[in-house]
Every structure is written in C-alpha cells, then in structure tokens.
Amino acid sequence: MPRTKTTTRDAELLKRMDAYWRAANYLSVGQIYLYGNPLLKKPLTRAHIKPRLLGHWGTTPGLNFIYVHLNRIIKEHDLNMIYIAGPGHGGPGLVANAYLEGTYSDVYPDVSQDEQGLKRLFKQFSFPGGIPSHVAPETPGSIHEGGELGYSLSHAFGAVFDNPDLIAACVVGDGEAETGPLATSWHSNKFLNPLTDGVVLPILHLNGYKIANPTVLARISHDELDHLFRGYGYNPYFVEGRDPSKMHRLMAETLDAVMQDIQRIKTVSRKEDTRSAHSGP
Ligand SMILES: Cc1ncc(C[n+]2csc(CCOP(=O)(O)OP(=O)(O)O)c2C)c(N)n1
Ligand SMILES: [Mg+2]
Asked: Nearest bound ligand to CA 177?
C-alpha cells in the first residue's frame, strides 16, 4: 500500500498533469484517426477520417498516463530513467509526448507546433510515406524499434546490468505478457545486483485485452495475481480504477512509495557491503 500522502500543493500539479495527459491523448487519437481538420474547428465529416486505419487506441491512454507520472518523479528526484514501451501499437503515445515536449518539432521542423504541423503529425502516422505504428528509429529519443512483442522486460534488464545509475521503467502489455520470452523474463531479477546494477521497474499494463481478446492476467483474481508476482520475487503495487482524478493521486502516491522502496534497497545493500568488507577474511 502507498505510504505517502499527497499535499494540497500537489493537487495543482496533479491537475496540470491531467491536462498534459489529456493533450497527449488527443494527439494520439488524432494520429490514429484524423486525416484533416486537426483542431476540429469544422464539424467532423468522413473526409476528415483516414481511409485505412492501423494501430489501436486501447493501450495509448495508459502509456501516456505512465509517461507523465514518470516525468514527475524524474524531475523531482533528478533521475536517470529510460521508458520502455512493451504493449502493441503504442507508437502514437510516444510520438505525442515527443511532440508535446517540443522535441519532435526540433528534429522535424515541418511538423511544427501549430495547426499546419499538427495536420502533418496526424496524417503521417501509419500512412504511406509516413511513420510506422510502433515506436521506431525516426521517433526522437527512441533507441530501439518495436513491433515484435515479448522483449521489453529482457531489454530493461539488459539496459541496467553494470549501469547502477539507470532506472528502466518497463511497461509490459498484458497481451505481451502471454508471450514465452516475456513470461520467462520476470525471472531476470535473480541476476540483478543492487550494488553494481541499476533498477528495473516493471509496470504491467492490465488493460484487459490483447487488441480485442481477453488476457489471462486480467482475468485471474487480484489475489492470484498478487501471489504470482510475489512468487517471482516482486513487491506488487496495484493502481486501479476509472476516475482519472483518483487515479492520478493513486499513481503519484504509488510512485512515491516505489521511490522509497528503491532507496531503501540501495541503502541496505550498501550497508551490507561495507559490513562484509570490514569483517574481512
Ligand atoms: C510476437 C508477436 N506476436 C503477435 C503480434 C501481433 N500483435 C500486435 S499487438 C498485439 C496484442 C498485444 O497485447 P497487449 O500487449 O496487451 O497490448 P494492447 O492490445 O493492450 O495494446 C498482438 C498480438 C506481435 N506484434 N508480435
Ligand atoms: Mg493489453
């Protein structure tokens, strides 16, 4: 259970984070569906919708939600963190965030932060001559192409081995979690050394579906899921609900608790290391 309470000062911050999240969601849904009329200034007609749609919406609000919340702890704790997006078709979410931050327009000046640029951003996604539906090399900040499900968590562990200052926040799709490579990679925590390696923060995105089909981990009971992850050696936190304002608060409190856990694990391992060095042969 989260141990910290957010203050009234944080309420204003959470409101602004919600606004950022909603903007990222609009930019994501616009990329999937809109061919024209990017600011919906005119009544929507069929001519404004892309003739062939690729990509799906289901995973994106969750990816955007996690993105803005991780940004808060990165800024608050000055973290060195990488975001690994596992679920299928999360591309529009990551592109939306790069655009909101201004990085996208820095790299691609024609995709500017105005109506004309917005139209280009929306049209190019999953479109002939445009950008793929997954996070791809042309996405600013991206260092690895997505597309084949199953490898997010093993990449996260690989990134932090011998890299003690890095935190790899790894969003695992509940559909992705059903692939063989992902199902086995939970065990990579057995190879992690808190003194010499960084931290992996797996975030299981239980949106209930793999595209349109139900997922196993979203259908087993809360208790069974909790036990499963404790068995793997994790201390699971649940952030669940439907009301965005409650969810923002819960996520912020949970990430604060997670940061405390990480600091505690690091401190304890450092103390144990000094003690064993002093005890000598
Ligand atoms: C190895 C592999 N098998 C199948 C696919 C096709 N595929 C793309 S997205 C997806 C569903 C993924 O489910 P989840 O991770 O829960 O993402 P969500 O549907 O929630 O976005 C599948 C099966 C793939 N990309 N890679
Ligand atoms: Mg899913």
From this structure: 1
Contacts of 92 by beta carbon, 8 Å cutoff, 6+ apart: 27, 28, 29, 31, 32, 55, 60, 125, 133
Q: How far apart are CA 91 and CA 22, in angstroms?
A: 17
d(CA 279, CA 281): 7
Report the pocket of ligand 1 as residue ranges, CB < 6 Å. Answer: 58-59, 87-89, 147-150, 173-176, 179, 207, 209-211, 215
Query: Ligand 1, from 29, 56, 94, 176: best to mutate by most atoms within 8 Å of Cβ?
Result: 176
Q: Are 253 and 5 in contact (CB under 8 A)?
A: yes
Q: Give the residue from 91, 66, 199, 101 showing the smallest Cα distance to 145.
A: 91
**Is 8-272 a domain of CATH 3.40.50.300?**
no
pLDDT 10s per residue in the chain (281 long)? 444 555 655 899 999 999 999 999 999 999 999 999 999 999 999 999 998 887 778 899 999 999 999 999 999 999 999 999 988 688 999 999 999 999 999 999 999 999 999 999 999 999 989 998 888 889 999 988 778 899 999 999 999 999 999 999 999 999 999 999 999 999 999 999 999 999 999 999 999 999 889 999 999 999 999 999 999 999 999 999 999 999 999 999 999 999 999 999 999 988 888 888 777 65
Nearest to 7 by CA among 177, 264, 249, 251: 249
- Domain spans, the chain: 8-272
The CA distance from 51 to 185, in Å, is 39
> How far is ligand 1, taken at its centre, from the CA of residue 121, in Å?
24
* Nearest in space to 181 (alpha carbons), one of 217, 155, 212: 155
